[in-house]
Every structure is written in structure tokens, then in C-alpha cells.
Amino acid sequence: MANGTLKVAETENPLAVLIDADNANPNIVDGLLSEIAKLGVASVKRIYGDWTIPNLNGWKLVLLEHSIQPIQQFRYTTGKNATDSAMIIDAMDLLYTGPFKGFCIVSSDSDFTRLASRLREAGKVVYGFGEMKTPKPFVAACDRFIYTEVFTPQHSGSDNEEVSSEAALSKQTSKELTCSPLSKPASS
């Protein structure tokens, strides 16, 4: 039944989660996936990198624990990032072939600014996740941008965690970007 299938997809809010391993920390994954679960269902979870280089070794256990599919992309030359291109191509393939309501782009790299804009032009919701150092154009290109510092162990379990996460979820204006979503609100 076509209508029944469509209704299930709307209820589940399927999301494609695409992680740039070169620009994300494996220590954030538990908090990241918990936050994504509040937004929808992570129907696809992929992470992109050159898995032959030692600086990505910290991801292995995390990938196994959370069933995140690693996508191998060799570096063709130094100074260029073929990983970003592979992630962008996959995102466009998923846009045209999958039933996704939105995309979660996990990176602090401004190279994904145009991808976020293009996905939004196609009517998809784009959730960005990255560090506070993420360039403003990428943050602005997303419907919502969540700073991954809220997922690090030093911030988990704090009394202010719910407020910090809520503040990080709100759409950031260029003026608000200069303020840290992690700062403690004034007590009333």
C-alpha cells in the first residue's frame, strides 16, 4: 500500500547521516547519535575517510559499536581532500534515490556549504554538526547547526546540558554565532 509506506516514512523521519572522519572526533559519536535520534531515524550512517592512514584508527571501535558504514577514499595527492568529494557525490545520490526527509552533515569543513544549500533547495532539512571553529557560511547554510563540543565528555552530565543542547539546536544568526552556545545562562 503506497499511502501506508509514505505515512511510515513521514512518522519515522528518515535521515542520512554523513560523517567526514577527517573533521570529526570519534569521542562525540554517542552524543551525536543521541541528538540525531531526537530529530529522526538515522536510516543511513556513513563515514568517509582514507582508512589506510593511522590518524583514523580511533574510529574502528566506534564504527563497530554504532553500525556506521566506513567508506574508503584514498588520497590521490597531498593537499587535496578526495574524501569531501566522495561524501558530496554520495549525498547527491541519496538525495535522488532515497526517501530521506533530511541530512545530517558532520564536519567542521566549509567545503560542505554548497552541499547544504543544494540539499535545502531540494526541500530537505539539513542538520549540521561541527566544532565551534566551523566557518560561518557552512553554519548559515544549514537549517540547524549543533556544535559538537556539547557532546564531549567534559560537558556530559552537567546540570546545564539540556539548556546547552537546546541553545545549540536553535538556528544561529550571524550575531549569535559570536556567542558560545555552551555559555551558562544567567540565573533568574
From TrEMBL:
<feature type="compositionally biased region" description="Polar residues">
    <location>
        <begin position="170"/>
        <end position="188"/>
    </location>
</feature>
<feature type="region of interest" description="Disordered">
    <location>
        <begin position="154"/>
        <end position="188"/>
    </location>
</feature>
<dbReference type="InterPro" id="IPR021139">
    <property type="entry name" value="NYN"/>
</dbReference>
<dbReference type="Pfam" id="PF01936">
    <property type="entry name" value="NYN"/>
</dbReference>
<protein>
    <submittedName>
        <fullName>NYN domain-containing protein</fullName>
    </submittedName>
</protein>
<feature type="domain" description="NYN">
    <location>
        <begin position="15"/>
        <end position="148"/>
    </location>
</feature>
